[in-house]
């Protein structure tokens, strides 16, 4: 593995880890001085508030793709707060431009210094939880070339216009865990209006997971990094979208809450979406992936082939999000193919995992339980990258 700085901003080095392929990709001359390989660009989870490029790392995904000859890349991005989704989009786009530089080449110690380049037009975006949202943002905003495919595991952002994001909670809602206090001294610096400290006011892209030791007097094993609680706190308060967009005054969440309430009483779903789009406004509408597929503009984005994996019992990111995005994707495919007279519609894939909670793929027995799911998702992406139409097809 090698680590590169893809961007420097606000005193930060934003980094990306690049893991070598285990096998030469199909159709490549292994005697050449430089090999080309398709690539997967992965974004970590953490509610956009915590973690780094090694957090919640999907070894099942890395293993399967590198065995197929892919480079596997995992990247940092700026975290909320004080950054917002605007900065995260900037990071995702700048990373995409960096990695698509045709002069970029990687030399891995594991390959005895052999140079490997990214095969142009063959890069996939993937992510888990909030990283799935980053993958969606890449599908919307990255181009020249566009991502070849999208792989999302229980991704956020398939539908931000729900009570999960907009309604304050008075009962435990995530795995039955206790409600949090916004006045907790460890959380208060991260709650709007901010009382900034050196811990919370400086932008960061690296906030590792940490826990109290087993011998802790009151909370053994409890997160010792307060950022690990922030996404849950913001969801509990019904203000997550304020932190995501930076729109605190007036509260965007509060305004959208009113639109959501009106939809249940006065207007229909389509009317609610039109009203929500007006409330969100042009400045931050680009942070809502669903509007790239559901609005009526002529420049509506045509997404790459997309595979969505989601547990039916997810309490952190309800499965409705992936179901809604899948619905929007298939609807947009139908409309596009009608317009261009194409009967060979692009297919997307939604894999629902019965009874599975958030992060089910990281459980110790995940390979035994969900190995077939993992295989199906990776094969879908692999076929999309190489323009395959079936199991027996060869790469184009």
UniProtKB/TrEMBL annotation:
Chain segments carrying region Disordered: 197-223
One Gene Ontology term of the molecular function aspect: hydrolase activity
Residue spans of biased composition, Polar residues class: 197-210
Superkingdom of source: Eukaryota
Keyword ATP-binding: no
Signal peptide: none
Short name of any one Pfam family annotated for the protein: Abhydrolase_3
Domain annotation Alpha/beta hydrolase fold-3: ranges: 40-157
Record's keyword terms, sorted: Hydrolase
Keyword Ion transport: no
Alphabetical list of PANTHER family matching this protein: AB HYDROLASE SUPERFAMILY PROTEIN C4A8.06C, ALPHA_BETA HYDROLASE FOLD-3 DOMAIN-CONTAINING PROTEIN
Designated name of the protein: Alpha/beta-hydrolase
Organism of provenance: Coprinellus micaceus (Glistening ink-cap mushroom)
